Amino acid sequence: MTEASRSADGGRFLLTTAAFVIVVAGMREAQGVLVPFLLSGFIAIISAPALFFLRAYRVPSVIAIILVILAIASIGLLLGVLVGNAVDDFSSQLPTYQAKLKTLTGEGLQWLSGMGVPVPEQIFSKLLDPAKAMSMAAQGLSSLGGLLTNTFLILLTVVFILLEASSFPAKLRRILANPEQSFPHFDQFIDNIKRYMVIKTGTSLLTGAIIYLWLLVVGVDYPVLWGVIAFFLNFVPNIGSIIAAIPALLLALVQLGPGGTAWAALGYLLANNLVGNVIEPRFMGKGLGLSSLVVFLSLVFWGWVLGTVGMFLSVPLTMTIKIALDSNDSTRWLAILLGPEVDDEPEQNKPGSLLRWRLPHKHESDE
After folding, report:
1. By CB atoms within 10 Å of each CB, which of 69, 106, 189, 243 scores lowest?
2. Which keywords appear in this protein's UniProt record, sorted alphabetically (predicted)?
């Protein structure tokens, strides 16, 4: 490699890095406007199959969109009423729960000391205080209520996205220089995002329903609230289910004692293992997964850029980037790095995978 080519590569790297920093800084400054539009985009992607289904049965576009928007608004209103009341009640009872939890923690520390396991109470109260964890959960729930002020803007944006959904492919064909070659890649990119969001939403809904029914049977207060939290945090693999379980299990400990907490924990283990390890891989395949490190880093990054909502959208946003990288031959290696551990045979060749591309084996590339 000549000195000129090395200098050109270095300049290109610096230019790309500078552009990335500028874009991220702009997104962070514009999060108040950007977050509602991102939510609108994901809601439109999830609801698009229902719109196309209605149109396939010759329902006029305007009527189909009205029906879809009414369904979205009804679900949002129902969740807002149920979860809003539960959050208000939970927040009002929080001091009582914290006091009981602090008493149980003190009794647990005394029991450990009696068993010969000394635990400094001051250090424990600063680093591992369960009451603080419950308080943080209440604050996080309250912060999500701020999205309700943007409900009208979100729904209006969803309407316009759905109105443009049918005409966008035709516009794209006119923009692309070589539509016959480029359009299939873009079409596959959109299809993979849509299918990922639909499957992930379905499995998250199943997880939330199982958690709700289980906690309802066990007798933990606010089962609807914990089911909704499990639904949203299921979009964050690995650590999302743990975060969703902590406040519910702490409440179960205050309410029902160790036995009830064990039953509640068993429900979380069964739900997340059934959905995360059996059902979801069956429909999605590992080809659209992310490594555990990428999941954690995306949670931190998008949370810093977009706030609390960015944490919920961290994995869908990162998955969108991964699918976009995978759609181009020159950036496919980055998609592989973002993905989970791969076998010798690419997961995309196996049944159930959403991705269609295939890497050549070594002996094929040598030919």
Report:
1. 106
2. Membrane, Transmembrane, Transmembrane helix
